[in-house]
């Protein structure tokens, strides 16, 4: 696995993202709060440019919420611009399909550099 510098540590504010190309791979670096996450710029549904989608939260209702709908994961949900599948930036998990998850690339903050490992 090789590490690539993709941003300066002060470059992204919380809520920002940056599309980077490492060779022929497009990766998007997100900053959520103080943490960085790197995801591929390709949706597992029909290969849409997922990282161009809006960042929001999601209405969810499940056994954990007592089946009461509520707003969750504000600022952590990425919506694919093509057909609207939602993914958590922090985990890559698709909200609609438990068996679908985006790959996550390791992110390393090394002094003033933010690196991803591929
Ligand atoms: S290509 Fe992303 S939801 Fe269809």
Structure report:
It contains no helices and 9 strands. With 118 residues, the protein is mainly β. The chain has a single domain (3-117), classed as Rieske Iron-sulfur Protein. β2 and β3 (25-32) form a beta hairpin. The radius of gyration is 15 Å and the shape is globular. 22% of the residues are buried. The structure holds FE2/S2 (inorganic) cluster. FE2/S2 (inorganic) cluster binds next to loops.
In short:
The chain is an all-beta fold and 118 residues long.
Search tags:
mainly beta, three-stranded antiparallel beta sheet, Rieske Iron-sulfur Protein, binds FE2/S2 (inorganic) cluster, 46% strand, single chain, 0% helix, 118 residues
Oligomer: single chain
The best one-word shape is: globular
Q: Would you list the SSEs in sequence order as H and E?
A: EEEEEEEEE
> What Rg, in angstroms, do the CA atoms define?
15 Å
Question: What order do the helices and strands come in, and which of them pair?
Answer:
Blueprint: E1 3-8, E2 17-22, E3 25-32, E4 35-40, E5 55-60, E6 70-79, E7 86-88, E8 107-110, E9 113-117
Antiparallel strand pairs: 1-9, 2-3, 3-4, 5-6, 6-7, 8-9
This protein binds FE2/S2 (inorganic) cluster (FES).
């Amino acid at each position: 696995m090789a590490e690539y510098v993709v941003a300066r540590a002060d470059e992204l504010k919380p809520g920002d993202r940056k599309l980077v190309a490492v060779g022929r791979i497009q990766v998007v670096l997100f900053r959520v709060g103080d943490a960085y996450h790197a995801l591929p710029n390709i949706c597992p549904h029909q290969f849409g440019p997922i990282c161009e989608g809006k960042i929001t939260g999601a209405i969810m209702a499940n056994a954990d919420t007592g089946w009461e709908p509520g707003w969750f994961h504000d600022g952590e949900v990425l919506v694919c611009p093509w057909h609207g599948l939602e993914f958590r930036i922090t985990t890559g998990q698709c909200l609609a399909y438990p068996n679908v998850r985006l790959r996550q690339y390791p992110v390393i903050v090394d002094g003033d550099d933010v690196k991803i490992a591929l």
